[in-house]
Design a protein that fits this description.
It contains 4 helices and 9 strands; from the N terminus they run αβββαβββαβββα. By secondary structure, the protein is of the alpha+beta class. The longest helix has 12 residues.
Length: 161
């Protein structure tokens, strides 16, 4: 790693976002519905969040849908929970099964420098069992928490149009 990159990473400051449901451990995989500038991430929520975001029926498998408007970058892939320490932001406080925003993000700054003028960009990271979701967008909104992944999927497709 170069000295410049190390200095840049020190700017990244993690904030845990408790207003977004935590991902469930050992559950179905997250999925993305996206258009050119809107991304919706859907994933099963942690059982510890059922009371906060419910109520749910006993046979429900709750999924949430999170909208990221004005997206200029997103990815869903490795690393997962087992090897999260290899992520470039792990030393800044990235934790498993959590929703993070990185303030003073070096990635958001780099993308803002090449993006056309628009809203201020924010860097979000959500960690799952087998993958990590990263997104640079203007904001986030939990558009809903649903009793099943199929319902979340339908809602996501209707919102991304």
């Amino acid at each position: 790693m170069t000295r410049t990159r190390e200095k840049t990473q020190q700017e990244d400051q993690v904030v845990l976002l408790d207003s977004v449901p935590h991902p469930a451990e050992d559950a179905a995989e997250p999925f993305i519905v996206a258009s050119d500038r809107r991304v919706i991430l859907c994933y099963p929520i942690a059982e510890s969040d059922f009371e906060s975001f419910g109520p749910f029926d006993p046979d429900d498998d709750p999924f949430c849908a999170v909208l990221f408007p004005d997206t200029v970058f997103h990815r869903l892939g490795p690393p997962g929970d087992g090897d999260l320490e290899i992520h470039p932001l792990a030393s800044q406080g990235l934790t498993g099964y959590s929703v993070h925003e990185f303030r003073n993000s070096s990635l958001a700054s780099e993308l803002a420098a090449v993006a056309s003028t628009g809203p201020t960009l924010r860097h979000f990271v959500i960690t799952f069992q087998a993958s990590t979701f990263e997104c640079v967008a203007s904001d986030y909104t939990v558009v809903g928490v649903y009793g099943a992944g199929e319902i979340a999927s339908r809602e996501a497709f209707s919102l991304v149009r």
